[in-house]
Amino acid sequence: MEECERRERILDAASTVLQECGYHAASMDKVAQHSAMSKRTLYQMFNSKQDLFHTLVSSRLFNVTAPFCHDITDPARELTDLLLALGEIILRPDRMSLIRALITESQESADIRQILTSLRCGGRDNVLTSWLSCYVHREGYVVEDVAMYGNMLFGMTIGDLMLQSLACASEASWIERMMRPRFECAVRIFLAGFGQAEATPGG
């Protein structure tokens, strides 16, 4: 088995153990058992339990990648397609189950709160911010904090459906149906107002 396959199997097991047992009881022994890997293998790939769960949360929820063209020709369509690609990953039922578990555990576990805080502070280098940086350069805007606008757009689109799913346990099929029309509308509003707030035409 390739190392990347072992890594994904371990992360899948860590997600399952977290949801079934909670963070405090999610020992490396239990993760090893669920992954059918030895505890030694786990420690060869992850320095500690916190490192393992940091990697789990980072790879499944924060460092999500989707392809996009740096040579922007149709901003509204390309940004909508990028958000749809991200939404299809982040809003999957297994990812939503992980988010629910993290919300629950963050109230009890300082480790989980620290993981989420460290990732949030380091979450500026992501595919959505990268696309917006390309767009800002293309339009000649001067924007001090592109990541802030990326966070706003995420909240208008994926974050909105995520909140509805968490609050109402919305079916995956409903989310899939709502993604495109909502994202297209949000992107039109966002791009129309993007150059009006803190962004000003550059010289």
UniProtKB/TrEMBL annotation:
Keywords: DNA-binding, Transcription, Transcription regulation. GO terms for molecular function: DNA-binding transcription factor activity; transcription cis-regulatory region binding. Pfam families: TetR_C_7, TetR_N. Residues 4-64 form the HTH tetR-type domain. The keyword Transcription regulation applies. Residues 27-46 bind DNA. PANTHER family: HTH-TYPE TRANSCRIPTIONAL REGULATOR BETI (PTHR30055:SF234), HTH-TYPE TRANSCRIPTIONAL REGULATOR RUTR (PTHR30055). This is TetR/AcrR family transcriptional regulator. The lineage of its organism: Bacteria, Pseudomonadati, Pseudomonadota, Alphaproteobacteria, Acetobacterales.
